[in-house]
Amino acid sequence: MDIDDYESLPTTSIGVNMTAGAFAGIMEHCVMYPFDSVKTRMQALRPEPGGGGSIRAVMSRMVQQEGLLRPIRGMSAMVAGAGPAHALYFSCYEFLKNRMVSKTTSQFNHLVYGAAGCVATILHDGVMNPAEVVKQRLQMYNSPYRNVLDCVRHIYRTEGIFAFYRSYTTQLAMNVPFQSLHFIAYEFGQSIMNPQHAYNPQAHILAGAMAGAVAAACTTPLDVCKTILNTQQVDVQVQGMVHAFKLVYRFGGVPGYFRGLKARIIYQTPATAICWSTYEFFKYFLQKREDGRHFDRISSENEDLSSVSPSYTSTISRTSTATFSGSGLIYNKSPGPVLLDVTRS
Which of the listed residues 96, 111, 280, 341 has the most CB atoms within 10 Å of its CB? Predict the structure, then answer.
């Protein structure tokens, strides 16, 4: 598959984008999940016996005091949320981007990418926010919930459906700038390491890691506020983003906004690299298989038609192969620009 074929991959099939995005989301959140558990405890308003100290100290106490599997408690909630959320995110981004790009001139493409990314983020967070709430409550020290379903039932009975979306506006306020910084940093890395935007696993990993680290560091204060909104650790009910900012300052001052910074970077850097490399690989693999099936179907049709009329077969063959490049589950008139600006995603 040459560079031109690869450039057209993201726009050829919604099914491919959804499948690749689901795998990417699950891998991103699960592989580095223990560090996410450490980050959650470090960001709590009142660090419990399992939450104070360095990353190594928190992880060590978590395992020694609560068992070997404690750092991955709540992972099933992330699997349930990350798969559909990322499938929706990647497919929505590509669909909106392609529709809008076809109706605008090239100088406005950067605005199209931003608009598509914002809509995709809103939908993604709508699916992920309940999973984040459940996951973070299970990650806390001395969590009273037996499992994911017990946590969901308890939250619903005692706090209502609103509790699952209490941090939604904060999540959006964090993710919109996070994704913007993420795309900019990723594209900058790609322009240096992979200017042709070919399928290059090493470039995807390095650019993704750099983008994740930069975006994570800059949005940590919002992540801290999201954590205390989700966990509701202290006796005071945290009602919204403004209230959360005030409480963080009251309990920890300015340094309180950067609790868990190192853990967040350590988690997000490889997680973003894994997400990008997984997405690119599955997109490349799935589209190549789709193209192979399409080629086999065309070959079979040509063999059947060869007994009818050689000239007619030649005409059909030329027509079919003209549509081969970029074929998939859904065909588009124009392949649009590169990947997720979402290589860029």
Answer: 280
End-to-end Cα separation, the chain, in angstroms: 22
Q: Which helix (H) or strand (E) holds 99?
A: helix 75-101
Buried (b) or exposed (e) across 148-165, using 16+ Cβ within 10 A?
beebbebbeeeeeeebbe
Q: Of 189, 179, 262, 175, whose CA–CA distance to 225 is shortest? A: 175
249: helix, strand or coil: helix
Position 231: which residue type?
A: T
DSSP state of 134: H
Q: Predicted confidence band at 8 (pLDDT cuts at 50, 70, 90)? A: very low
Question: Could you tell me the pTM of the whole model?
Answer: 0.68
For 73, the 3-state DSSP assignment is: coil
C-alpha–C-alpha distance, residues 246 and 252, integer Å: 10
The residue-averaged pLDDT of 73-102 equals 86
Report the C-alpha gap between 237 and 249 in whole angstroms: 16
291 in Cβ contact with 2 (< 8 Å): no
Query: What would the pLDDT profile of 137-187 be if each residue is shown by its tens digit?
Result: 999 888 889 899 999 999 999 999 999 998 898 888 888 888 778 877 877
In this structure, is the dihedral angle defined by the CA atoms of residues 143, 149, 158 and 231, taken in order, positive or negative?
A: positive
Cα→Cα distances 44→55, 139, 303, 332, Å: 14, 11, 67, 48
- DSSP 8-state code for residue 234: S
Q: Read off the DSSP letter of residue 237.
A: P
Show the tokens assigned to 242.
């403004």
Distance in angstroms (rounded) separating the CA atoms of residues 168 and 173? 9
Task: Assess contact for 34 and 71: CB atoms under 8 A.
Answer: yes
The answer to whether the beta carbons of residues 200 and 261 sit under 8 Å apart is no
